[in-house]
UniProtKB/TrEMBL annotation:
UniProt entry keywords in alphabetical sequence: Amino-acid biosynthesis, Metal-binding, Methionine biosynthesis, Methyltransferase, Signal, Transferase, Zinc
Pathway: Amino-acid biosynthesis; L-methionine biosynthesis via de novo pathway; L-methionine from L-homocysteine (MetE route): step 1/1
Name the record gives this protein: 5-methyltetrahydropteroyltriglutamate--homocysteine S-methyltransferase
Source species of the chain: Rhizophora mucronata (Asiatic mangrove)
Role summary: Catalyzes the transfer of a methyl group from 5-methyltetrahydrofolate to homocysteine resulting in methionine formation.
Length: 810
């Protein structure tokens, strides 16, 4: 119910407590389902569907259970119990909210693509798997590596901040049904009285998301394996049918990419081969993250044995035109009108209008209200956010609230519209649109003034590097790290206590200074050339800056999974962005005062802040990015004035924001690269600008990376089998400093000196020694000092060995 008082809308939502989770809800209708006490509740069924749901838990329960297990502080049984409780709570929560098509098998201990690799028995030989059901030992070795072998490659999941484990395939892989997780979880839900829709990564997308294994020709056609994996899919489908499943969902997100004719043909072939096995089942093929092309739409809607098709109608608005031009008779349309990738409340009236239009095309009983993609990419529940103010909270919807929105839209479509709920929603949208906290005219004016300049530094990079070397006097193959050092429990406790006002500011500053001093001394002992202060004052590389910028808000529990147990808490950009005061100068100058070696000032770049935040959806993203760039520019210039001569502006997520369709690449790269250049266009030649980029495929955007005009770039390389280096082998000339990562920090494994030296030699085969830097892949925040010290020692020793070889050769 809602109350309207003096123009302010207070939306009162009933709290439905289910297990360990709490869901904000309104009285809802749901299909027949059995609760654990076996009583039957018969109410009206609504056509509603959720693509997937966050798996970490509202308070990151799975994260802590995983890390306890990895640290040998808990048993496999204890981890499985936490997981089972989370799954049960999620299913019951959706059932209580009235969702008809509830997904199962979207839960994962690490990643859904890795789950599929396990299902198919596609375990690389180095992990020593000898058949049988794949257990935690093999599963987590593939994800994280172990003492003797490295992990599988990890890369971005399309254009999100989620990461998946890349399958390694080749002609010799023997596929077999080796993980019964999908069937087990369906049965688990059914035993509690809830009939779910089991979700599988589709066979064609799985292959297209894979890579040739080490030793396999890079040109190996992965799709040639389709007939080898389909028998396993048929076994899974057969078991699901036998267990009583009536629907099955295949996620085929690769259909939104630019696909060639033979790739589209692979979809037709695969589902034709599966048709007999799928007989008797309702089959949903789900797409998300972008429009489908006309060719892909034609292929998809012609697939044999398929009952329904799911589309992202938030990021794929052009797909609406394709649906209007023709939709197969008698099929279901799963309409993704509730945004699965942002946290803004749905415009319910607008969505109902779209849904009614779709009903007129596909039929009244054939439209199913759905999320645009899995809710994995959004925060869990606003009920856990007591500190967000009422106005802002009324503008938002986390995963639990999106479940309610989906059901409210389904009810409205069925003629049972909740007028109070819709009225409150409309007033919240009006409140946001007119709020003075959203708009800052001075910021808008400054951003508008950026037009007409490309904001390049006055001299070219080679001249700048010469000027910087005269000032810094670095050795050949200079060593550095990426920024963060291990965040110990004591350090986290200090920050937590300061935030809770349990310790004074003086005590907090003293503790952080002591941590910085420890990190500086360690780096000097290791003989690292360009130092970092370790970022002990920072909780997160984006949140830390957002907390000091206007136009940002922060959740207490708005965690989103990035990979494995790693979660991030994206800031919420709700208004125009500016920098009220310096953000990092105090800590950077404090650290520089502790050493004579160069100390990097550490900043997060505007594109990464944008891409790792929940961004306002009421203006184009590039306009918000330019505002952030101006704020970072002020910080860069303050650092330089304070005597910091090396400044790193991380753009870890620049590649991640690249649109999925090639036709949209140029526009994005133009404003993204321009935003980076804005941050440092006015500084001296002697100030060295570094940037850093994380896990991504960079080869297709290397020219844009060069156009960023940074003096030094450090970039992920080790976990992807040095594929970054291939672009230089192919003749791309790079004149700035570059540090391809020499070891993978996302694994606890400690590389040997010889291994690192070998990696550096591979780099020297394609890069000049006078531009090559030696550094890890990424920041060290998630590692332990017992891992960091020997790994960095081996890294520095390897660089020194090669310097000696150079000296001897001369």
């Amino acid at each position: 119910m809602s109350q309207v008082t003096g123009g302010v809308v207070l939306l009162s939502l009933r709290l439905v407590s289910v297990g360990s989770l709490t869901l904000s809800s309104t009285p809802t209708a749901t299909s027949h389902f059995l609760r654990p006490n076996s009583r039957t509740y018969s109410v009206r069924a609504m056509a509603s569907h959720i693509v997937g749901y966050p798996r970490m838990g509202p308070k990151r329960e799975l994260k802590f259970a995983l890390e306890a297990f990895w640290d040998n502080k808990s048993s496999a049984e204890e981890l499985q119990k936490v997981a089972a409780n989370l799954r049960s709570s999620i299913w019951k929560q959706m059932a209580d909210a009235g969702i008809k098509y509830i997904p199962s098998n979207t839960f994962s201990y690490y990643d859904q693509v890795l789950d599929t690799t396990a299902m198919l028995g596609a375990v690389p030989e180095r992990y020593g798997w000898n058949g049988g059901e794949i257990g935690f030992d093999i599963y987590f070795s593939m994800a994280r590596g172990n003492a003797t072998v490295p992990a599988m490659e990890m890369t971005k999941w399309f254009d999100t901040n989620y990461h998946y484990i890349v399958p390694e395939l080749g002609p010799e892989v023997k596929f077999s049904y080796a993980s019964h997780k999908a069937v087990d979880e369906y049965k688990e839900a059914k035993s509690s009285g809830i009939d779910t829709v089991p979700v599988l990564v589709g066979p064609v997308s799985y292959l297209l998301l894979s890579k040739p294994a080490k030793g396999v020709e890079k040109s190996f056609p992965l799709l040639s394996l389709i007939d080898k994996i389909l028998p396993v899919y048929k076994e899974v489908v057969s078991e699901l049918k036998a267990a009583g499943a009536s629907w099955i969902q295949f996620d085929e997100p690769k259909l939104v990419m630019d696909l060639r004719a033979h790739e589209l043909q692979a979809f037709s072939h695969a589902y034709s081969e599966l048709e007999a096995s799928l007989s008797g089942l309702n089959v949903l093929v789900e797409t998300y993250f972008a429009d489908v092309t006309p060719e892909a739409y034609k292929t998809l809607t012609s697939l044999k044995g398929v009952t329904g098709f799911g589309f992202d109608l938030i990021r794929g608005t052009k797909t609406l035109d394709l649906i209007k031009s023709g939709f197969p008779s008698g099929k279901f349309l799963f309409a993704g009108v509730v945004d699965g990738r942002n946290i803004w409340a749905n415009d319910l009236s607008c969505s109902v209008g779209v849904l009614h239009d779709l009903e007129g095309i596909v039929g009244k009983d054939k439209v199913v209200v759905s999320t645009s993609c899995s809710l994995l990419h959004t925060a869990v529940d606003l009920a856990n956010e007591p500190k967000l103010d009422k106005d802002l909270k009324s503008w938002l919807a986390f995963a639990a609230q999106k479940v309610v929105e989906v059901n409210a839209l389904a009810k409205a479509l069925a003629g049972n519209r909740d007028e109070a709920f819709f009225s409150a929603n409309a007033l919240a949208h009006a409140s946001r649109k007119s709020s003075p906290r959203v708009t800052n005219e001075a910021v808008k004016k400054a951003a508008a003034a950026l037009k007409g300049s490309d904001h390049r530094r006055a001299t070219n990079v080679s001249e700048r590097l010469d000027a910087q070397q005269k000032k810094l006097n670095l050795p050949i193959l200079p060593t550095t790290t990426i920024g963060s050092f291990p965040q110990t429990m004591d350090l986290r406790r200090v920050r937590r206590e300061y935030k809770a006002k349990k310790i004074s500011e003086d005590d907090y500053v003293k503790a952080i200074k002591e941590e910085i001093s420890k990190v500086v001394k360690l780096q000097e002992e290791l003989d690292i050339d360009v130092l970092v202060h370790g970022e002990p004052e920072r909780n997160d590389m984006v949140e830390y800056f957002g907390e000091q910028l206007s136009g940002f808000a922060f959740s207490a529990n708005g965690w989103v999974q990035s990979y494995g147990s790693r979660c991030v808490k994206p800031p919420i950009i709700y208004g125009d962005v500016s920098r009220p005061k310096a953000m990092t100068v105090f800590w950077s100058t404090t650290a520089q005062s502790m050493t004579k070696r160069p100390m990097k000032g550490m900043l997060t770049g505007p594109v990464t802040i944008l891409n790792w935040s929940f961004v306002r959806n009421d203006q184009p993203r590039h306009e918000t990015c330019y505002q952030i760039a101006l704020a970072i520019k002020d910080e860069v210039e303050d650092l330089e004035r304070s005597g910091i001569t090396v400044i790193q502006i991380d753009e870890a997520a620049l590649r991640e924001g690249l649109p999925l369709r090639k036709s949209e690449h140029a526009f994005y790269l133009d404003w993204a690269v321009h935003s980076f250049r804005i941050t440092n266009c006015g500084i001296k030649d002697t100030t060295q600008i570094h940037t850093h980029m994380c896990y991504s495929n960079f080869n297709d955007i290397i020219l844009s990376i060069i156009d960023m005009d940074a003096d030094v770039i450090t970039i992920e390389n080790s976990r992807s089998d040095e594929k970054l280096l291939s672009v230089f082998r192919e003749g791309v000339k790079y004149g700035a400093g570059i540090g391809p990562g020499v070891y993978d920090i996302h694994s606890p494994r400690i590389p040997s000196t010889e291994e690192i030296a070998d990696r550096i030699k591979k780099m020297l085969a394609v890069l000049e020694s006078n531009i090559l830097w030696v550094n890890p892949d990424c920041g060290l925040k998630t590692r332990k000092y017992s891992e960091v010290k020997p790994a960095l020692n081996n890294m520095v020793t390897a660089a020194k060995l090669l310097r000696k070889e150079f000296a001897s050769a001369k």
